[in-house]
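Just scan this pair:

***
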Amino acid sequence: MIEATRSLGSTMSAVELHPGVRRPDWSVVTRPAAREALGGRIAARSGLLAKWSTTLGKTEDLVWRSIMDLFPTLGRPPRVEEIASATKMSRDGLLPVLRELQQRDLLVFDEAMGSVTHAYPFTGSKSRHRVRLGERTLNALCAVDALGVGAMYRQDISIESSCHFCNAEIRIATRRNGAALANVFPASAVVWYDAVYSGGCAATSCCPSIAFFCSDDHLRQWLVPRAKPQHGYRLWPDEALEVGRALFGPVLATPNTGPDD
């Protein structure tokens, strides 16, 4: 049996991103294990929840959405000048907004280089999780982020990843515009959803351990050397997909275009 913290916490907690659009979207989380994992995430990551506890202002929301539009359009992290052009803002006006979004742990940007380095679910660095979205292949920060991309953009995606223990190939494709799985290879693949959050940044604390494994056996072997029980959840890919949909489906949604069911 895989040992993990099992705490539901306030499972229905959500933040209103836009009128009538809340994150996470609990309506797409139907499987008990997915609900438990998402609830446990909220309970464990109180620091992250605090960062997300206030609805974004119109300018912050515009900049965040524009960055998420630019990532797949460019196939890479957008530069400050590109974000300024997309939002029709000056560089001086944009920089404080980027700092605020970074403070909320929605993205990280390198001010000296003048570029975003990552914005959940994407990273500009090479990662284990490569997501094919339209004509672009992008790197996702973690397994659940990768699974949430299709729901975020209302498009089917394909994922190429590898087992976090043995590096065996793992391939996943979606259907119904990212709302369901089309195929999973190997069929024994599972996801470890790590709930640890520290340092004010999910990308450097929990994301490296939110990963695919080719089997339960390899997940167990990966967990054994850890000095203490891991705070996380073992999920089937369809359960992890629901968590990804709940977290990322609302990001680009409007009251008239909610996540596909």
Notes: DSSP finds nine helices and 13 strands in the chain. The chain has a mean pLDDT of 88. The two ends are 33 Å apart (CA to CA). The domain at 58-120 is CATH 1.10.10.10 (Arc Repressor Mutant, subunit A).
